[in-house]
Amino acid sequence: IILSDNETTAMTGGQDSAGTGRLEAICTGLGVAPAHIRVVIPLKKNHEEMKQVIREELAYHGVSVIIPRRECIQTLARKKKEVRP
After folding, report:
1. 15-32 in b/e burial notation, b at 16+ Cβ within 10 A?
2. pLDDT tens by residue, 70-82
3. 3-state SS record for 22-83
């Protein structure tokens, strides 16, 4: 399972979602082994690491969850705009 996490609920204007910061705990609560809940940062510099994580979890015979996590681009842009004088 791949759960894309941008740490926000975009359809509501960027509020935190109820699952923000809790996806790993939710997956564990659903019975996914913690060793097979993998969080990656989806940046170009991490491409090889992400490919390796995907390969490892595809080879695992059970439920695994990969969580690509990165702040929503719109939220980040809004924060940067607010900081500017």
Report:
1. eeeeeeeebbeebeeeeb
2. 877 667 667 677 7
3. CHHHHHHHCCCCHHHEEEECCCHHHHHHHHHHHHHHHHCCCCCEEEEECCCHHHHHHHHHHH
Could you give the CA distance from residue 57 to residue 77 in angstroms, rounded to a whole number? Answer: 33
- In b/e form, how buried is each residue of 57-83, taking b as 16+ CB within 10 angstroms? beeeeeebbbbbbeeeeebeeeeeeee
CB 19 within 8 A of CB 6: no
- The answer to whether 62 and 36 are in contact (CB under 8 A) is yes
CB 79 within 8 A of CB 16: no
Question: pTM of whole model > 0.70?
Answer: yes
